[in-house]
Amino acid sequence: MSHTFPELPYTYDALEPYIDAKTMEVHYSKHHRTYYDKFIAAIKDSELESTNLSDIFAQISQHSPAVRNNGGGYYNHILYWNCMAPNGGGTPSGALAQAINDTFGSFAEFQDQFAQAAINTFGSGFAWLVVKDGQLLISSTTNQDNPLMDVAEVQGEPILALDVWEHAYYISYQNRRPDYIDAWWNVVNWDAVSEFYAVALAQGR
């Protein structure tokens, strides 16, 4: 296998007014692309060129900071993009909705706990909804770490990612991270998240 840079699944302006086109363009074509390019450079002529990301992350503590930081940035953004859609928002349905209600008591309580994890991430990082041993967990990581990494405090299969680096929201929201998070709920692609949840369960995560 080889690591490729995927196309954005929608146009830069598709998530407006919640996430502006300029932010999307810079975030995808500059930030994400740079993580990818640096990751490819960091693994060049090594066995990691043909190793899947999950296996790399499972032993990330044994790899260089360049692989950890840029491999994380490469993967994290792919999940982040795919957890959003132009006609997103609303609430999940089916098995995911039931699991959220069973775990957190209600969708509103889940939203609150997830938002707090994102708001309270010091500096740059991500908030995550994770499947671990068939259960849902909320976690956060700093910088470009993720729950697939053996260095993560909470490890598991991430199914929902929220980028809280300032470059993800500063043009429209400046330092108002809570406002960005409130807006982000309007573009969450619950159909995709539900699919990620189903796959995680099927794989015995």
UniProtKB/TrEMBL annotation:
GO cellular component terms, alphabetically, are:
cytoplasm
The answer to whether UniProt assigns keyword Metal-binding to this entry is: yes
For the Manganese/iron superoxide dismutase N-terminal domain, which residue ranges apply? 2-85
- What Pfam families does this protein map onto? Sod_Fe_C (PF02777), Sod_Fe_N (PF00081)
Reading the lineage from the top rank, the first entry is Bacteria
Q: Which UniProt keywords apply?
A: Metal-binding, Oxidoreductase
- Which SUPFAM superfamilies did the record assign? Fe,Mn superoxide dismutase (SOD), C-terminal domain (SSF54719), Fe,Mn superoxide dismutase (SOD), N-terminal domain (SSF46609)
Molecular function terms, GO-annotated: superoxide dismutase activity; transition metal ion binding
The UniProt record lists the keyword Metal-binding: yes
Report the EC code(s) recorded for this entry: 1.15.1.1
Q: List positions binding Mn(2+).
A: H27, H77, D163, H167
Catalysed reaction(s) here are:
2 superoxide + 2 H(+) = H2O2 + O2
Domain Manganese/iron superoxide dismutase C-terminal: start-end pairs:
92-195
The record describes the protein's role as: Destroys radicals which are normally produced within the cells and which are toxic to biological systems.
**PANTHER family, alphabetized:** 37S RIBOSOMAL PROTEIN S26, MITOCHONDRIAL, SMALL RIBOSOMAL SUBUNIT PROTEIN MS42
The UniProt entry's sequence similarity note says: Belongs to the iron/manganese superoxide dismutase family.
What name goes with this protein? Superoxide dismutase
Species annotation? Vibrio brasiliensis LMG 20546
